[in-house]
Amino acid sequence: MSTATAPTSDVTTTRSLFAGRAVVLIAILIFSLSLRTAVTSMTPLMTRISGEIGFGDAMIGVFGMMPTAMFGLAGIVSPALGRRFGLERLTLVAVVATILGIGARSAVSSTWALLALSGLALAGMGIGNIIIPPLVKRYFGDRVAMLSTAYITCVQLGTAIPAAVTVPLADAHGWRTSLAVWAIVPLLALMPWVWVVRARRGHDVADHTAEATEPALPVWRSPLAWGMSLMFGMTSLATYSMFAWIPRILTDAGASEATGGTMVALFSATGFIATLFAPTLTARWANPFGWVLAFVTCLLIGFAGLLWAPMHGTVLWVGLLGLGPTTFPMALTLINLRTRTSAGSASLSGFTQGVGYLFACAGPVFFGLLHTWTGGWTAPFAFLLATTCVLVGGAYVACKPRYLEDGLAAAR
Fold it and tell me: pTM of the entire structure?
C-alpha cells in the first residue's frame, strides 16, 4: 500500500513562503521601531543643541513642526512612488534615508545642515508610515488585526523608549552620541529589507510590472477617504497638542516641571496600552463607531478636567486623555479593513496620513497662539472641542462597513 505524500516541490514552496513571510515580518517590525525615533530622541535635547549650534526659539518651532509636515508630504508622494518602484524597493530607500538622516545629523555644526538631515530622516520615516499598512495587507491579509497590533506597538515603543533614555545618554556621552545611537534601529532593518527586495525581484517580476503600470486611484473623490483623513488628522492634532502643552498647562496651575514631565509620560503610556487592543477591537466590529464615541468621551472629560480642575484628579484627567487617541490605531487598522487590495491600501494610507498630518501640523501652534492671544486656556480647549467634533464626523463616515474600491467603481 502506498502512502500519499506531498510533492517535494510543494513542500519546498511552502517552506519558502513561510520563511519569506517571517523575514518580511521581522523587516516590518524592526523598521516600525524606528518610525518616531528621530523625533523623540531630539525633542528633549533641543535646548542643548540650540545652545551649541546657535539657533533660537523660532527655529525650535520649525523643528517642532517638521515631523507632521514631512509625514504629510510623504503621504502625498508615497503612493505614486510605490506604484513606480514597488512597495518593497521604496521601503528599502526609506530605511536607508532614515539611517543616513539620523546618523549624519549628529555630526553637523550648522542649523541648516541639521534641518536638512532631520528632514531626510523624517522623510524616510514618513514613507514608512504610509507603506507599512499596504505591506501588511499584501503579506498578512489573513492576519490584519494581529499584524496591525504588532507594528503599531513597535511604533509606540519607538516613541517612548528614546524619550525616556535620550537625556541620560546625553548626560553620559554627549548629545551627539545620544542622537546618533538611534540610527542603529533602522540599520538592523536594512539587511532584512535587502533580502525582501532581492526575493521579490527574483520571484515576483510580473507583480511589480503590474504595480508600476497600475493607475492611481482617485481617492480624493471618496467620502470614505475624507472621513478617514479627518478621523486620523484630528486625532493627531489633539495628540500633538497635548504632548506639547500638558507641561505648561500644569505648571501654570502650580505644578512642578517634574510633574508635567510625569504626566506626559502617563499620557504616552496610556496610549501605548490602548494600542494593544485597538486593532482587534476595530476588526471584530463591522462598524466600530460606538467605540470611537467612547474614546472621544474620554478625551472630552480629560479636556474638561485639565481646564477646570488641573490640580485635582490630574492623573485621572491625563489617563483619560491617553485613552482618547485610541482612535489613532483604529484609523490605521481601518486603512486595511476598508480596502480590498494592497494598491487600495497604499492609496488610502497615503491620502489619510498625508492630508491628516497636514491638518495636525497646525494643532500645537494654533493652540499656543490662542493661549497667547487670550491669556488663558479656555479658547485653546474650545478649539480642541471643535476639532473633536470634526473627528466624530469623519469617524462616522470612516467606520461604515464598505470598501474604497467599491465606492470609487460605483461613482464612475
Answer: 0.79
